[in-house]
Design brief:
5 strands; Cyt_B5-like_heme/steroid-bd
């Protein structure tokens, strides 16, 4: 049976993240120099159309669009404080409206800077 703190968490839709998935861990990973864009450096920045975007729609390979920019959020999924299921609702699609609905205050441009793939051309 869920205890009161678990109930409080679930009603706020906040999930318990795996160890090593704190915001600080994410900050470390993004500054590690690892290629989080998942594309060749010479291909950056890409022009991404709707068809290409839609192919990157799963947990192993996940792109989304936020305000006209395409991000590879594959490596971020397990760090998402709202849980993987929620963030997967924007997989392979334009996630701008959902993102703004849940947390317009979140500074995704800085958080996902090194996950930027390019611009969305629709
Ligand atoms: C690339 C896309 C996204 C990023 C970078 C992102 C980032 C974040 C961050 C940083 C938080 C913590 C906010 C805080 O504590 O103030 C958060 C929480 C949350 N996010 Fe997202 N998010 C994304 C997409 C989504 C989507 C598509 C949904 C819903 C369909 C969603 C739903 C939530 C929910 C429910 C929470 C928990 C709010 C709470 O109770 O504290 N997020 N997200």
């Amino acid at each position: 049976m869920a205890n009161s703190s678990q109930r409080a968490l679930s009603s706020r839709k906040k999930v318990v993240l795996e160890p090593g998935c704190s915001p600080l861990d994410w900050a470390r990973l993004t500054s590690s120099g690892e290629n989080l864009r998942g594309i060749q450096p010479q291909d950056f920045p890409m022009k991404v159309d709707k068809k290409t975007l839609s192919l990157h729609n799963n947990r192993q390979d996940c792109w989304t669009v936020l305000k006209g920019r395409v991000y590879n959020i594959t490596s971020y999924l397990r760090f998402h404080p709202g849980g993987i299921e929620e963030i997967m609702k924007c997989a392979g699609k334009d996630g701008t409206l959902l993102f703004m609905k849940y947390h317009a205050w979140v500074n995704y441009e800085r958080m996902l800077e090194n996950c930027l793939v390019g611009v969305y051309i629709g």
